[in-house]
Amino acid sequence: MERATIDLFERSSLRDEHFHRYTLASMLAEGRVVDCACGIGYGSTLLDQEKAVTSYLGMDPSEEAIRYATENYARPGFTFTVGTLEDNSCEAASVDTFVTLETLEHTHDPERCIRNVSHILKADGLLIGSVPSADYEELCERVYGPNPFHLHRFTHKDLEDLLGRYFNSARMFSAEFSMGTLFRPLDQKTSDSSAGQIILRDNHLNKVAGSLFFIAGGKARVGSALNKLGLMQKFLQSVPKIVLDQEEVEPVRLSFQRAENMIRQRDEAMAAQAKLLEERWAVMQSMEEQIHQRDEAMAAQAQMLEARWAVMQSMEEQIRQRDETVALQIRGIRGLKSVLNAVSEKIGSEVFLKMLQNKQHPSTPFLDMAFSLYLFIARLYQAALKAGAQDLFFFSREGQPLKEMFDLYLSYKDSPATIRTHYLQVSRRSTFLISLGPLSQERFHVLFRQYRRIALIDFLKSVALEGHTLSLAQALGVDVRAFETVKEDLPNDPLFQNLLKLKVFQQLYEEERVSRSTAFERYLAGLAGGSIPELLHVVDVGWKGSIQDNLFNWLSHLHGEKARIEGYYLGLVASGGLTVRNAKTGLLFSNINQLTPGFAIFNENRSLFEIILHADHGSAQRYGLDANGNVQIVQDEFKEKKMIEEKVWPVSQPIFDYFGQLAAALANIPLAANDLLKFTLKRHARMVFHPSQEEIDWTFSVYHVENFGVFEESRFGNANSRVSRLSQMMFTWHLLRRRRPSELGSWPWLTIKIRALPGLDRLYSWFRRWQRR
Fold it and tell me: Which residues, if any, are the signal sequence (predicted)?
């Protein structure tokens, strides 16, 4: 016990030993008092029993102890600070009484400590202290073992010599905490429980001083102190023996009793195990017949294996014949390629592609999308080769059909590079919380850089914590409907700031952040072959790369400065968190640094890619582990399921089939990259600037669901809406003045055709085609 802690007060004997020292010191303390090694501060109350203390300063090297003392014992004139006996900041000759109980033995330089005390005491000041006696230390070491916290031992003479070098007068006393029997008359009205004669039994242990209690200072002050103490053989009554037994002996007795019960239970368990062993031995003996039957079965299996081996040897001739057939087929395929190449050279690759196109069903909307997707997949393959990528992670949900097309493209290559593809179920929502840091350091930049005018419930949905809305509202003392009110600037809204300060939210945030990150790490490691690589190559449709930004932040938490991500996108229109280590490339179109060829055409109605490239499941919401430690990916409700099945798949499937035919044909009849780009731009421009009425009607029949920042459906509009000529004139005026660009929507050409003056859509189409040059 090196400091009196809160636990000490549960043991009466230890508590009273400390209290008695302070009680004796309180008889002598007066004026300005410094209590060095004050611990948790309980001595400040005891020292003020005589009301002679005008100010009190408690010092202790433990910040935790000083914090507790300040919270529980500080009051006007009574303060606490961190400090030690060897280094203190008290002014010279400024202290009336300096108290340091059971402290010197802990210091590295007791001489320096006593010199410091003599320097800060007034001329008539008094030092009150105590140290364990050398005899008592030796006895404790035999009983309890060495005390690593005690650096020095003091005999009576050692302490007397040390004090004599710095003080004119010093007196020492023995403090002995021992058991005895107290006899006192009951017919006297007195509270002096220490009065009377102390009779010592002839026992050498009675002569061992537990502590050497000392006072030192000027002769006058020491003499005054001795007068206050009176006849110096005082007995400060402690606890009755029954209480000591209850606190010290009874727990030991109960421990022995529990040990006896455990031994009895162990004996019973051993007896049960012995019985079980006997039963098992009987079972093992009865298994001999079964082992014999097993040996016979194994012998029969060996005969069957020999027969199968003979069959396999007889198949060698068949395999040789098959190889010859395959070789003939390969020569035939090569001959077919030569014929196709010759035809292509004669009629031109573009004519050949048109011939292939004419074989498709003409009524399928946006069938030309197959060319744009092929160009992207071809460029993706070249980019992956150049980067030396061995694994490509396709982000859901658009990544599901993109991965299938990439795998199909690889299957048509004569000698494809070894590139493993993985479908990674991620979303901005599922990766947002795991990308964040501790709440105290977080500003939610990825969310608020785009979405500031949102409701508090939208923020909770974005971190997938909306299931706790009711409990959080109750903790904040607000109606749950307040969470649904849209705020003009949510990051600076008082309700949002109060949520961040809420302890229950802070705990929920950190628990979910850590647990989801752990689950996602296990999920990604399973796809990556057991460990998370420092470099990830990822693929997504676009347009800013927010999911990649989230993953890069998460990966940086894992690998620090070594974390890198290379992102390959169908299109990029904003850089997001792009850096050297978080690289992004728009393979089909991009406006980062400069516009890529055909940007104005590919970027027109880019949301068409998102709708056609749709997966067969809902968006990933969060990650977790089940009771067996298996990864669980919780998905949002698949609200678009019916629309996808009835509207999207009947259109997207023919596009994917056409893509497969293109991949097969162009694998045998390579088309120059520039020719492929020109042809693709023509077909894509046809879709976005001269769509059929069926394509326009189909566009109006589908919608897209946002699942981050805002949570709502977005549609292209109403195909049957009628716009007045005045409205067309006003819209055209604002358009030509470049006002309200956001009103153009995701398909500007269609918006202009519907809302602007007639003919302006053709002018817009011409302008965009001219821009591609």
Answer: none
Domain boundaries, the chain: 6-178+205-238, 243-347, 368-438+519-635, 717-772
Is residue 72 within 8 A of residue 41, CB to CB? The reply is yes
Question: Rounded to 5 degrees, what are φ and ψ at 603?
Answer: -75, -20
Q: What is the pLDDT of residues 573-599, one digit of tens each?
A: 999 899 999 999 999 999 999 999 999
- Domain 368-438+519-635 in the same topology as domain 6-178+205-238: yes
Helix, coil or strand: residue 259? helix
Strand-pair partners of 395: 424
CA 678 – CA 166 distance, rounded (Å): 100
Interhelix angle 546-559/428-435, nearest 10 degrees: 30
Question: Any idea which residue has 């919401």 for tokens?
Answer: 621
- 405-429 pLDDT per residue, tens: 999 999 888 777 789 999 999 999 9
CA distance 505 to 613: 37
What is the sign, positive or negative, of the torsion defined by CA atoms of 112, 113, 117, 118? Answer: negative
Distances (CA, A) of 570 to 340, 378, 399, 642: 30, 11, 11, 26
Q: Look up the CATH number of domain 368-438+519-635.
A: 3.40.50
- DSSP H or E segment with residue 83: none
What is the Cβ-side half-sphere exposure of residue 458, based on CA atoms within 13 angstroms? 23
Given pLDDT bands bounded at 50, 70 and 90, which one contains residue 10? low
Answer yes or no: are the C-beta atoms of 129 and 117 closer than 8 Å: no
How sure is the predictor about 640, in pLDDT bands with cuts at 50, 70 and 90?
Answer: confident
Distance CA 750, CA 127 (A): 94
Question: What is the topology classification, in CATH, of domain 6-178+205-238?
Answer: Rossmann fold (3.40.50)
3-state secondary structure (DSSP) of residue 146: coil
Tokens of 702: 């589908």
